[in-house]
Design goal:
mainly alpha
Amino acid sequence: MARRRWKKFLGVILIAIAAILILGITFSIGWRPIIGAKKRALTDRKFETTPARFVRGKYLVDGVTGCFGCHTDTDWSKPGGPPVAGREGSGRVWADQNMPWLVAPNITPDRETGIGSWSDDTLARGIREGIGHDGRALFAIMPYPNYSQMSDEDLASVIVYLRSVPAVRNQLPSTRMPFPLSFFMKSMPQPLTAAVPPPDQSTPVARGYYLVRMGACEDCHTPREKGQPLAGMNFAGGFILKEPKGDVASANITPAPSGIGYYSEETFLLAMRIGKVGARPLHASMPWYFYGKMNDEDLKTI
């Protein structure tokens, strides 16, 4: 009899522990890190190549988003840290940023080592929804949370342009995120199942908001603690960036006196175009190499 009561008591304890674990996971990290990232099924959609899409895609990739800045080895010997000439989009191992496990893939049209064999929707899902061609959750240094607001037409333009750049054969390893980062990243991707309309262009502020999102400016100009942006410190600077000459902190780009409140329009445009404020050069990690390819009207709205 005593043995039976002990087994019953032990069963109740195990059920209670299981319930606590289920509730704990549900109301803390959630189940996505365990069951896998959300993802939608791929479709057979294909984006038609048009001259307008090529021009818009080139403007976005080479200027606004600076895609090749992450997807190409950086030439630190040149001002602005441009991509290594002739290797644009060929991929990059981020060992120089103390992340040797992180690999930005080859996004040139090479069929064996790049995106040449990927469908348009595979690219679309990776860019805006954070799911790689192999089905894994992408590390959010690829700013897909921002790109989730990229309009359908801009997305098509980006993909059309990437299909047109010279193919570069460059075999790279796959990203192998360390634990627990690999675990928690699975909770970030969010499928897009509805159309994303063109951005609001009704005011300069609305237009600038879209460009700032696409340029992921906040990601580099907001301080972080344990990987999370500090609340209320948006664009306040202090994010640590790696450069050959040592670590640097990103600048405060709010209108505060310690930020860019004293910038004239001309000062701002020069900073974005040539990487200097007066005679003072900006840090190499400021990607003015890309922003210099943007038109004045867009830069002024930023």
